[in-house]
Amino acid sequence: MFNRVMTRKQWVVCSFLVLLLSPSILPQTAKPRIVVDVRSSLRRLLEDEDTDNDQKITVNDFHVKGTERGNKSFWLHTVDGKRIEVAGTYYLSNLLQELTLAKEAHEDTAALEADHIFEPPAERIARSIRERYWSALTRTIDERGLLKILSDEKTKTIDGAKYLYIPSSDQLAFSYYTDVAKKFPQQNIKVVRLPEKVTPQYVHSLDGRHGLLSLGLQRNAEGKIEAIPFAVPGGRFNEMYGWDSYFITLGLLQDGKVELAKSMVDNFAYEIASYGAILNANRTYYLTRSQPPFFTSMIRAVYGRLPKTKENLQWLKHVLGMAIKEYHNVWMNSERLTWTGLSRYFDFGYGEPPEVEPGHFRMLYDSLAPKYRTTAQELEEEYKSGKIKIPELDRYFVHDRSMRESGHDTSYRLIGVAADLATVDLNSLLYKIETDIAAIIENEFGGSVQLENGKTEMSKNWVQRAEKRRQLVTKYLWNEQREMFFDYNVVKKEQTSYVSATTFYPMWAGLATKEQAALLVKNALPLLEQPGGISGSTEESRGPITPEHPLRQWDFPFGWSPHQMIVWQGMRNYGYDSIAARLAYKWLFTITINAAQFNGTIPEKYDVVLRSHQVFAEYGNVGTKFSYITREGFGWTNASYQIGLTLLSPELRSSLNRLISPEWIFSNNN
Q1: Domain ranges within the chain, ordered by starting residue
Q2: Annotation marks residue 409 as catalytic
């Protein structure tokens, strides 16, 4: 599978050979460059090496017998008649990417940097994320960015219009977007003001006319109105998502993009003020649910990178007030707070969630059709139109929507039961919010702060809330026999037995005792650690796969970036730094080898047993469909790579770069 190893010394020697062997084609100042005709080189490269015609060069491009096509060796012709051989899947795909960038820059002749073509894989991935992917994932909902977002396939409506919905309280936004819509009459943009009180019935009435929700506006230095920017996950996820944004923010901060990270916090503060919650994403069908709450973690991460000025302290007070509002109004409201004193995920909407792809619930309708003496298709149509009431479906979709608020859609841990569970992940997050708020008030405001609403908050009160939750989590979620954390079913009044990566959340939140953390490392880690990282669940908990029990993307054998980063930090919180480094290396190894063998692919999730991006459960794998060059990677996967690299020793980082060896030859032959 892997090519031979190359040391750093060999790399330097080979780079030096470029200069010695081809002095006429390489500038004597700056980095070595190879001057080529872009279009002819690109055409020849694809003809020779893209044997499966998918506009990529991957390990799936096999050698065509009896020809030189697909032999993973390509002679690159320079403009002055020299030839350079580039060999090996990884280096050929790099060449394809560099030629594509040159073509998109409208260059007929380009001086390609040899350092980029023959760049070690870990360095290339990190550089691409830092220099290209974050900017490609950045969006603005204003005159310059609105059309890009509205071109998303999810904006399709029954009347062909593109809907943009504005909070009832934001007159500036309504006036601004109304004017913008008039500038693009051919786009058929309809700007609609939301009612003052958004009910589940109102959201349901929008079926067929759902649209984008506006985010924050600001005035620039010239006084012109512009949107507050944000980063999206990527692919079909072209909005600002709830928990994705926290992990994306960590990546942005790691790469020095502090202002964009701060803007993410500002937009979430706007959502809380305007929509009452940090939404699953800023689309109308998400107005009835939130996502896992990481807001205070975002605030502390961003504020830690800001200059300690009066202006930034005032900003901190404002977003702290929004975080406290979210805590009380969303996570401690009567629907989400259970009799145990712990909280659950809950969506206020009803019926089938409109964002799912057609056919996603077909198996469910198939199972009920015989009872109602009809076909699955007819049953679905009648239920969605309201012609027939089906209590089983009503109950199912309460749980399904609540599962989607958890971010873990879908998993057998939550299917059919999510709204009945006080989960380990949510209550760990709420404990972290409580301790974050306590720490902010204590460290930045001396233990007491008067917020913009006139209410005074005391650090000691939030410490008490956190301690109470810690006791309740231990009482209801810690299992003394199995020595792990499990969700608690508040209806059945018993713990579940589903082993999930979420059992590590109390370590991330600092909620677990040192003894509990040690037991999690002893008992849970061996069950969930796989060759490519942490899996979403154990195979035993997931159960055998059958036509009636298909794969679910948040279960074994799949691994996701947020789980990896949470486990890494959880381990570090309790002094298990070497374990964190080992797990980070496994995950980065998986990302690196898939990117190297599949034209730079960086998707949303992986099969961590096979260490493969080829995942076909449910929705497939966002980030794998592109031509010539990946444009943006995937938000939290990008972040996990940049964060993961910081946990590796120089030896482990070097090991990632040695996964691929340079198979290239330089020649002066004409």
Answers
A1: 8-138, 142-331
A2: yes
